[in-house]
Write a structure and sequence with these properties.
The chain is α+β, with helices and mostly antiparallel strands. The protein is 51% helix and 13% strand. Helix 5 runs parallel beside helix 15, helix 5 packs across helix 16 and helix 9 crosses helix 11. GO terms for molecular function: peptidase activity.
Length: 525
């Protein structure tokens, strides 16, 4: 390692605006300019994230991440001042990889990937413009940027089930007779649903973010860090189950309305705050980082052979830095052009699409007690009909056809398909489905039940998996190949002598292979 890579630092030598050392002025200016450019070019993605931070309670804690980032960097300022930043061409593939993630999210309509990509590009600009040694010094703040990404919605349903199981176990232990059915718990006081908002995902994500920060700031031992993170994972899940049980138990004596109101006001704010402080209070005794210990070990950075090897070819010249910045802008332009071409793709569709006659089944008017209207936002064709066989078994069919996939017209997007958020129907439990589909049991406000099975068709893909659909769409659009996407939902009412799964299987046997059935509809036959 060249000894000048870590420079001598003394407070009196600091000069420039804000006391910035001379060897940091131009690289820092380039970094700030690069970040501003990324914020401007990808403003729509940053605005979408900011709306989620502000509007969705699950992500409100993410508003604290930017000031936390500033605090983390401020605590490292003296050590960073003694490291010479150097433009590093090897950082370009890292930046390109983050850009590719954004592009994949753009072509698939998967906002989480787009947002991960823009956050990744923000982070990867650091090794590209400042070099591996500076990156090593700010590695944790760069990693912590990941908590800006609004993630966790995919955990809601599993956490609903876990919370329901904890609540029913505690309800039985407390002597209250109860029965569980999916995420619903029936007690003498009434029927309780572990709703999406009660899954505990909000507190779990916040606790993990807090735990990762505390583990880095307060501990040196990796075992103690792991123990804290395990506590931040397990404790909020268990605490949320206790909260759900307490609401059910209180309702047996004070009524459902009083218990629910108390739950949202007291438990929603006080209970979880107490849990957070309890975890912190227990962990406090085991803090092993000295208060005056620096966050960066300059000796470790100075002696690292790996960093010395990685830094070969890095340079601190302004010409090298300007060339790297130019490469970044060229790459961003290429990403934007590729996405624009992919967004312009539109598969040809027939002007008229109709649901066919099915042998042994006839079309009738729907007379459902609770209206069920699946959502297919942005679909070019959307059809819905009810079929009845000779024994009176009923099947509702929804078919949607899309010329393209993207923002506002995603077959597998959030809130699309069999279960519409904030409707009369709620998710009850997952079910096995035939022919690679996705099965779900739904429950209405009046306890009506139905089973819905969903399939997506894109190219050769037939699957009920949103993830597999997105991967298939990514593969098509990255090759700039226009292909239509179809969504098929078969649903049947359950109860009162109706076996929904048997009814759907009988209907499926009458339609024949679903690939051919869906392809025929997409071709207008």
């Amino acid at each position: 390692m060249q000894p000048e890579r870590i420079v001598a630092y003394e407070e009196p030598r600091a000069s420039g605006v804000g006391g910035i050392p001379a060897h940091w002025r131009f690289p820092l200016l380039a970094l700030v300019a690069g970040w501003l450019a990324l914020f401007i070019v990808f403003a729509s993605d940053w605005a979408a994230m900011a709306r989620q931070w502000w509007d969705i309670s699950t992500y409100n804690h993410m508003l604290l991440i930017p000031p936390v980032e500033c605090w983390l960097l401020w605590n490292r300022r003296h050590e960073l001042a003694r490291i010479e930043p150097r433009a590093w061409w090897a950082g370009l593939p890292l930046f390109a990889a983050a850009g590719l993630v954004w592009l994949l999210g753009g072509v698939s309509g998967f906002d989480l990937l787009r947002q991960a990509g823009v956050v990744g590009m923000l982070a990867m600009l650091v090794p590209l413009l400042l070099g591996p040694r500076v990156t090593a010094g700010v590695l944790f703040p760069l990693f912590y940027l990941a908590f800006l990404i609004p993630f966790g919605e995919e955990l809601v349903k599993p956490l609903q089930m876990v919370t329901a199981k904890i609540a029913i176990a505690l309800t039985h232990l407390s002597g209250v007779p109860a029965e569980i059915d999916g995420v619903f718990i029936d007690t003498p006081a009434g029927l309780f649903k572990v709703a999406e908002a009660c899954s505990g995902v909000k507190f779990l994500i916040a606790m993990i973010g807090f735990g990762v920060l505390a583990a880095n700031v307060c501990f040196l031992s990796w075992r103690r860090r792991a123990a804290l993170l395990a506590a931040c994972l397990v404790v909020p899940i268990v605490a949320n189950g206790i909260r759900a049980w307490a609401t059910i138990y209180a309702a047996q004596f004070f009524g459902v309305a009083v218990a629910a109101g108390f739950d949202h006001i007291v438990y929603g704010w006080v209970f979880f705050a107490l849990v957070l402080f309890a975890v912190l209070g227990v962990a406090w005794k085991f803090f092993d980082r000295p208060v005056d210990a620096p966050m960066i070990s300059l000796d470790a950075l100075h002696s690292s052979r790996l960093l010395a090897s990685l830094e070969r070819g890095a340079a601190s010249s302004r010409g090298r830095l300007a060339a790297v910045v130019g490469a970044v802008f060229a790459l961003i332009a290429a990403l934007q052009l590729w996405l624009a071409l992919a967004d312009a793709l539109e598969a040809p569709l027939p002007e008229h699409v109709a649901l066919p006659q099915v042998p042994g089944w006839s079309r009738v008017a729907s007379a459902a007690q609770v209206p069920w209207q699946p959502r297919a936002g942005g679909a070019d064709h959307r059809l819905q009909a009810r079929y009845v066989d000779g024994q009176g078994h009923k099947v509702d069919v929804v078919f949607a056809l899309y010329a393209r996939q993207g923002e506002g017209y995603e077959a597998g997007g959030f809130g699309q398909g069999a279960l519409v958020p904030d409707s009369a129907w709620s998710w009850h439990s997952a079910l096995p489905a035939f022919e690679k589909g996705r099965g779900e049991r739904l429950l209405a406000n009046d306890r009506s039940e139905r089973v819905a099975m969903t399939w997506y068709r894109h190219g050769d893909l037939l699957s009920g998996s949103n993830l597999r659909l997105k991967l298939a769409v990514i593969a098509s659009r990255m090759r700039l190949k226009a292909q239509p996407t179809a969504m098929l939902i078969l649903s049947a009412p359950e109860g009162a002598g109706e076996d929904a799964i048997a009814t759907l299987d009988a209907f499926h046997q009458s339609t024949g292979p679903l690939e051919r059935w869906m392809d025929a509809r997409a071709a207008g036959r």
